[in-house]
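=== Structure Prediction Worksheet ===
Name of assembly: unnamed complex
Input type: mixed (protein and possibly other molecules)
Chain count: two
Listed entries:
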Amino acid sequence: MTTGPEREPAKDGDGESLGFDPLHLMATLILGWLVPGLGHVTVGRAAKGLLFFLVLGTTYAVGLLYARENAISPDEHPFAFVGQLGLGLPTVIIVLMQRGAEVVTPDPEQVPKIDTGILFTTVAGLLNYLVLLDAFLWAKEGPREGRDGEGKDGAESSAAAPPTEAAPESKKEPPDAAPAATEAGPGDAADSETETTEEKAPAGAEGESS
Amino acid sequence: MNLGLSIALFLVVCYVTSVVCAAIRDDSPRSIATGSFRLFVTLVIGMIGFCLVIEGVTWISSW
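=== Predicted Assembly ===
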């Protein structure tokens, strides 16, 4: 979502780069708090953001439909309100709307519905805190680095994986090719297959010359 | 509110929770689907076990 010239990454007191943009981090946090999934959209994960928006938005909306505006009340349900505040925009709007309106005591028959509404809205808000944490980590570590097999970890795992994959292939090789494989050494296992084929040719050439 | 509706709402909340948690952990739609189902089953079994433990403690304390 970067438009225009790229900014330099933030630096700490020693002048070393932090590796992330604090403004982007703040934007991810604020947008993800206001609307569920929008934080993921800002870090380039639109599909996941859409999923979070649909799931959490539907849960929150069902809770509101069940209990109307009675579900959200910082005075009557302060602990639930902490969870509901996880979905910032709708909760803040409802609280602002309630300020001007007169307080109406709910019908006792409506109380079970209000409890259900509180449950749904609180669960949606609490889950959005988790989603926000995930978006925060993506914004901090970068969408291509260090997460879910992509980027840094992915490079490490791809560098670490080939030895296990290359091992059965080395077993398949004939016994006379084994010394060539051991000469290649344990490093650069990803290229072990190409190296063994490259080293096979000189060995064959030596055999022909001798 | 009847018992059936309460159980249905409980299952909905459990499934929403497991879908979000699986989507945070996994990336591909298939792994999200399988992961959320496994989380859902684990969550339901865990909640039933938790309720049984609470009921047992309440029952024992009433002796």
